[in-house]
């Protein structure tokens, strides 16, 4: 397939970020996107998540792996954030594996993971 066609079908680059809690993941994504703004987060239904709710449930809501994290100034990337594996042990690891497996079966190229960091 022509690379330009692939690029068109992907639309926005979908990146899964894996790393320890508080390791600096969000900071790296801000650098990559050349911004200092806070990410905007959408749940899997495409609804914007209220930042106040995120503050209250930092450890759960924020790290739902299905959530889509974007920076408004750089809409070319969608990030999925995984909790550090040390936090939940085996169940967290299984969640990441299941997420990767299910995304690899998505029919549309734009819904698949394009990069895992
Ligand atoms: N010294 C130092 N601090 C950093 C660096 N990168 C990030 N930080 C700080 O570390 C803290 C955590 O950074 P985040 O980017 O929020 O880390 P995170 O991995 O997204 O954290 P969670 O989403 O809570 O898991 C923040 O206070 C950052 O300012 C770095 O390279 N050096
Ligand atoms: Mg973060």
From TrEMBL:
Q: Which residues form the G domain?
A: 14-102
User: Per its UniProt record, what SUPFAM superfamilies does this chain match?
Assistant: P-loop containing nucleoside triphosphate hydrolases
Record organism: Suillus discolor
Identify the InterPro entries for this entry: GTP-bd, P-loop_NTPase
The protein here is known as G domain-containing protein
Which molecular-function annotation in GO is an example for this chain?
GTP binding
